[in-house]
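Hi there, hope your week has been kind to you so far. Do you reckon you could talk me through the fold, stretch by stretch? I've dropped the whole record in just underneath, so have a look:
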Amino acid sequence: MGVKRRTLENERKRSTAIVATLFLLPVAFFLIVYIFRSVIYTFKLSTLDWNGVSQSTDYIGIGNWLTLIKDETFFTTIKNNLIMVVACLIIQMPIALVLAYLLDWTNSKAKFLKSLYFLPLLMSSVALGFLFKQLLDSNYGLAGAVMSFFMDSPFNLLGNEKTAIWAVIGVICWQYIPFYMVYYFAGLTSISPELYEAAVIDGAKRHQYIFRISLPMLSDTIKAATIMCLVGSLKYFDLIYVMTEGGPSGSTELMATYMYKNAFTQMKMGYGSTIAAAMFIIITTISLLTFKMMNIKEEK
């Protein structure tokens, strides 16, 4: 009887493995063709001196990498990216979580608010970039009109080195907070209402339920959202390029915009690929370290 049971279990595991493999094969195929192959090709291009158009290429080995190590602008872009990562994590995550709790408490009454909050994410980043570029203009934008009430000569938020990056971060947060709000809200809806009812019966207040029951149960959701926010902040391109093109004086230049300018504006495809490869290494390393630290904290 025991042998027969083990045989059935092995057959079940084998059939499950076969089905899982069949489902994963298409995904693996597209990952290999469109992701892994592209990453390998990018590293290959980083060893070349090529303008991206001509058929002739010069192999220079690690020449582009040696130039990158001495490139002060590239390290400035890393600093700007890190500022954006920290700011977006500090602003987006708490606000999105608070909004998710508010929507969860209001339940069915907040259907309109859910749709309203989610609207910014449905808009194109390029369109938002053009829209806020006009709104923040000091001459004929809304920001200039508001500042004129408090000062004689309004200044351009996007034209000032000290304020440009914070203006861009504000727009990015406004656009992406709804995404994390819905993500957290989905996590909250997966928590059984019976837990809250049991906590109330035991005399727990709402804040006690949040910090001692629901937040610990949302730990995996918060972890995933943090990783997505971190990776997204390191890859921002379109909205920033439309609003400032990395200016003024490189104050909003990010790794992605710097890579684009080198590869497609200055036609230095080899050096642009080196920046892209460095981005891949930096983003992967930071993401893995963050994930590892979260797991260590959870184990403790």
User: Anything to note?
Assistant: The first helix runs from residue 2 to 45.
